[in-house]
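Posting for a labmate who doesn't have an account.
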Amino acid sequence: MLTGRRLPWDGIKGELLGFIRGCGLLDEFKKLGCNFWDKQALTTNNIKHLGPIYGYQWRYFTSCRPTGPSTVDGAVTDQLAELINSLLTNPGSRRHVLTAWQPNDLEYMALPPCHMMAQWHVEQSPEMQQAGDRPILHCTVTMRSADMFVGVPADMASYALFTYLLSLLLGFEPGTVCINMADCHIYEANEVQAETYLQKPCYGLPKLTISQEALDAVYGENMDPVAFTEAAIAWLEALEPSDINLVNYQANDSQLVTMVA
């Protein structure tokens, strides 16, 4: 979390929970406390929606699958469920990936994905196991376009929270979040705010907490992979914004910023 200016934490956690649930309607995000998408929403039959953006791709990624030499059928993949299952059953894999980039759907999205892919890596070794240390979960995010002053700070906090939640479910220690960014920029509309930000002091980092009620709902061990994955998805979908809080978030006042698509 940035401390040089106060970030919209309610919107950040609400947006992530909306993505996890696969939400696509504007009202769904607003009910979770996120208004980031208000100006980008599409309207179809008087219904404001965002199209098949991040969460839709995470939960309902649709692709064509070959069924023969010249035939295909549509296959829907719950990438989040597959991610959890692979982290559980094959932590050493290099395929712990979520992608939001579906070329066939780009024209129907409110905005094409900026943070288009995330990959998780489990750090573990015999020495760690011998010492009784838990595996460490790291996240690497790929961004095709990086709004350094508005979007990137929120995305940093969002993927840190996401990695923390996955670590909590899987019994890992949360590790680092690394972001690979292309086309890094600050829009002219935010130049003055960025200059002001650079003159501000920074403070110590806050502590992330999960409500006791949510922690009590985390299931036990010794579940088979399928049951574990189903329970993990149910737990994530049941999380409410009020379950996720920051303690001692000391920051300078928030700044009025302009989101430019």
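Reply:
Got it, the structure tokens are right above this. The radius of gyration is 19 Å.
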